[in-house]
Every structure is written in structure tokens, then in C-alpha cells.
Amino acid sequence: RDHPEWGEHWALGDGEIAGVMEMGAEFPPQVPPHWQVVFMVTDADATMAKAQGMGASAHGPMMDMPMSGRMGALADPQGAQFGVVSFPAPG
Q1: Residue 20 counted as domain residue
Q2: How many domains does one find in the chain?
Q3: Could you tell me if 21 and 5 are in contact, meaning their C-beta atoms sit under 8 angstroms apart?
Q4: How many CB atoms are located within 10 Å of the residue 7 CB?
Q5: Is 72 part of any domain?
Q6: Which residues form the domain of 89?
Q7: Is residue 8 pLDDT above 90, yes or no?
Q8: Which has the closest alpha carbon to 61: 77, 43, 49, 78?
Q9: Residue 68 region, left (φ>0) first, then alpha (ψ -120 to 50), else beta?
């Protein structure tokens, strides 16, 4: 599926399972192009805070994403990087 505002997504059934996007101005220049596992959650801000409370470290502040989403990047205590994203419920 092509999302002009956010890139290209791949679907399995009714759910989107992967996507590719360009790195826009919201990414600092020192961040190179990369792959990242991102978990879709109900509330990215709350999940980010909980993960930090459990020992994860944030890689910068939460970001507003195209299509009205919120995204945060983290690393677990062993250094594995991952992200969390949430979008408002449709309707």
C-alpha cells in the first residue's frame, strides 16, 4: 500500500506489518539510514514512559508523525534499539 504522506507499507490480511519511509527533518542529521523494529501500541507516550521506568533509554523526544501519529525511539538496557508508535482511533 502506498501512503503518499508516509511512504510504502506492506499488509497481511487487514493489518499493516511493515513499512518504509524517508527520513525527514524530524530525524537529526547524525542519524544514518537504518532499519528499526517498531511496535504499534495504544498510547506511545505512556509506553515510552513505562519502558524508561523499566530501564530503557530514550533516543530523543517523542515525535509527531505524518497521519497524526506519535513515535518514540528507545534502547533496552542491553542496547537493542526499538520504537513505539500510536495513531488515533479512526472515526
Answers
A1: no
A2: 1
A3: no
A4: 13
A5: yes
A6: 37-91
A7: no
A8: 49
A9: left
Position 21 in a domain: no
pLDDT in the model for residue 82: 93
Q: Is the CB of residue 70 less than 8 Å from the CB of residue 86? A: yes
Residue 39 has pLDDT above 80, yes or no: yes
Read off the pLDDT of each residue in 65-71 and give the average, rounded to a whole number: 79
For cell 482511533, what's the residue?
89
Q: Is residue 32 part of a domain?
A: no
Structure confidence by residue, pLDDT tens digits, 11-34? 777 766 677 777 878 777 887 888
Nearest-angstrom CA–CA distance, 26 and 90: 24
**The CATH number of the domain where 76 resides is what?**
3.10.180.10
Chain centroid offset of residue 37 CA: 8
pLDDT at 2: 52
Q: Could you give the CA distance from residue 86 to residue 65 in angstroms, rounded to a whole number?
A: 9
